[in-house]
Specification:
With about 400 residues, this protein is of the alpha/beta class. It has two domains: about 240 residues, 2-Layer Sandwich (Nucleotidyltransferase, domain 5); about 70 residues. The protein is about 50% helix and about 10% strand. It has 15 helices and eight strands. A six-stranded mixed β-sheet has the order 1-6-5-4-7-8, sandwiched between helices. A two-stranded antiparallel sheet has the order 2-3. Helix 3 links the parallel strand 7 and strand 8. The radius of gyration is 27 Å and the shape is elongated. The protein starts with a strand and ends with a helix.
């Protein structure tokens, strides 16, 4: 069975109208995936792709019983075409229809499709001894960029108090459509129930049983298109367009990965001014590392000091509870800076001493080595200062 649904260009999906999500050829797609840098015509016919299967375990027994494809039309409306198997015997016909869809595509977009949707379909084409039509077709998986933009930084403390923090702590498509797009599904079918509903449909022939599954798949596709558009818009407009420091932090990571350090610095500077304490500290840490690469050693040290000063439960950045991995990195960087750059051996010794109290035994040996070296340097400096007095 083939089911078509079209969203008019002027209706809203979340905070914006459908027409605003249409692909823009000037969008910096290669910023998210450098493999697409040479794909100049990617926006000609973008096909958004998502499947529903009879399980998640893989293998030849797993059947993609619902295949959804979405695309924008010339009038900026959005069409979803869904192929639903009324029985396993219809799979060959579905594959033939999909071949036509993919041959007309300039880019296929998925959400975790690089590791699931596309390999599953490749297996089905191989099962029927057919050539895979997605071979050579540019593929953009939106999940990795979504994680870079909206997932909490590594090592982030879980202080999810707001709706934004609760939703964006997960990078599922349904969570991001709520927190990023402002779209909320009503009576959505949980993914874990989808296979059971399909099997009931096969037993009874009652198509109403899978109505919710079809709607779930349709929402996945239009939300995928909207999320991709929003991410590309943020990358084009820069940190000023972001609603939250976490987005600015994510942009900074994307710019830095693309070796665009000026824009990365600017994004981190914005994130470091936000109210989100944990994001601010991670942004300061990235600022410090970029500043050090530019030989801005004093600025880098000031950023590391701000990481410590902004730590929860500290009035002066030190003392109290144990240090996190980020704080230990700040202590090490400051010990190195004061020993080798600022030549303030007493400060270097102070930071190294604090660091020693909060590291693993394997790392403690390196810190002990640093402390012994600092002790020798301090003693030598003291002896040099006292030498004229002894001569007198």
């Amino acid at each position: 069975m083939v089911v078509d649904r079209t969203w008019p260009a002027d209706v809203s999906h979340g905070r914006r109208r459908v027409e605003s999500y249409a692909p823009d050829p000037l969008s910096p797609l290669s910023l998210f995936d450098p493999r697409l840098a040479d794909c100049a015509s990617w926006s000609d016919r973008v096909v958004f792709f998502d499947i529903e299967t009879t399980g998640l375990s893989g293998g030849a027994g797993m059947l993609p019983f619902l295949v959804g494809c979405g695309w924008f039309n010339q009038d900026a409306s959005f069409t979803v075409r869904q192929f639903l198997l009324a029985g396993p015997a219809g799979e060959r016909a579905v594959l033939d229809e999909l071949e036509r869809v993919f041959h007309a595509a300039s880019l296929v977009v998925t959400y975790n499709g690089r590791t699931f949707d596309v390999p599953v379909m490749d297996m089905r084409w191989a099962f029927h001894r057919l050539e895979t039509p997605t071979l050579g077709l540019p593929h953009f998986d939106m999940l990795p960029p979504a994680r870079r933009l909206w997932a909490p930084p590594r090592g982030a403390e879980k202080t999810a108090e707001s709706a934004w923090e609760r939703d964006s702590s997960s990078c599922t498509l349904s969570a991001l459509e709520r927190s990023v797009l402002g779209f909320h599904r009503l009576d959505d079918v949980p993914g874990i129930e989808i296979p059971a509903r399909y099997f009931r449909f096969l037993r009874t022939g009652d198509a109403s049983i899978v109505d919710g599954v079809l709607e779930h798949n349709r929402h996945d596709l239009i939300s995928l298109a909207a999320l991709m558009s929003h991410a590309l818009w943020l990358a084009r407009e820069g940190p000023e367009a972001c609603r939250e420091p976490r987005e600015q932090m994510g942009l900074g990571r994307l710019y830095e990965r693309a070796s665009d350090e000026p824009r990365a610095l600017r994004a981190y500077e914005f994130a470091a001014k936000g109210d989100d304490l944990d994001t601010r500290r991670h942004a300061l840490a990235r600022l410090a590392m970029l500043m050090r690469r530019e030989d801005r050693h004093e600025d880098a040290a000031a950023a590391w000091q701000s990481v410590l000063a902004g730590s929860p439960g500290r009035s002066n950045g030190l003392g109290g509870r144990g240090f996190s991995a980020l704080e230990r990195r700040a202590l090490e960087a400051l010990a190195i800076h004061h020993e080798h750059r600022a030549k303030n051996l007493a400060e270097a010794q102070r930071y190294a001493t604090w660091l020693k109290e909060h590291v693993t035994p394997a790392v403690r040996a390196d810190v002990d080595h640093r402390l012994k070296r600092l002790g020798r340097k301090i003693a030598a400096r003291k002896q040099t200062r006292e030498a004229p007095l002894l001569r007198e």
